[in-house]
Each structure stands twice: as structure tokens, then as C-alpha cells.
């Protein structure tokens, strides 16, 4: 396994404490983790946010992750918090939203379809706009 894959393997661990320690280790040992993407074009921060791993999101932000980095369709980690195809850990995903917003994530940064995180949140919550 190369260094870029290590952080994604760490994020796949089911045990919260082991996952967090493995992510911290990857961050400390791999200076390229911020620019790594999985086979689907998802960054470690996006993966953690989508899964509601708020402790990992917090560690990545503190380690300098770019909160507005985009995937291939220009979605950010904040957008991944509102993906309706992945509604898991809603409370933890809200914690991720707060962490990302506190770190300066842009709620108006639209994907290639013109949808921004604010619109995605409204859509997920069935708010009409």
C-alpha cells in the first residue's frame, strides 16, 4: 500500500478510536495526504465528512486540510455532508458541517451543476426556496 492509500484505509476502520489514531498517524507520516484522492476522486476530508467522522475531520482541518478542495464535479467536503445518497450518522455529519463552517468553508461554492452547500442542505431538509 502506498502512502496515498494509507489514509483511506485508516478511514475505513469500523472502530472509532482505532480509526482516529490511524488517521493521525497517516497525517504525521505522509506529507502528501492533503493532495491524495481515492479511485472515485474523493479527498480524505470529503470521505471523513461524508461518513460523519467528525473527530477525523477536526484533525484534518487542524493539520491544514483545504476545506474548499473540490472533487471531479467540483463538490467540496461541505457538499458531501449533505449527500442524500449517503444519509448515515446525521448527528455526526452535522458536527462535520459545524467544523467545516468554523474553518471557513464556502457555503456558496457551487458544483458544476450550480448547486452549492446551502442549496443542498435545503434540498435534503425538503425546504423550498
TrEMBL record:
ANK repeats lie at residues 40-72. This is Ankyrin repeat protein. Coiled coil: none annotated. It comes from the Eukaryota. SMART domains: ANK. InterPro entries: Ankyrin_rpt, Ankyrin_rpt-contain_sf. The lineage of its organism: Eukaryota, Metazoa, Spiralia, Lophotrochozoa, Mollusca. It comes from Patella caerulea. Keywords: ANK repeat, Repeat.
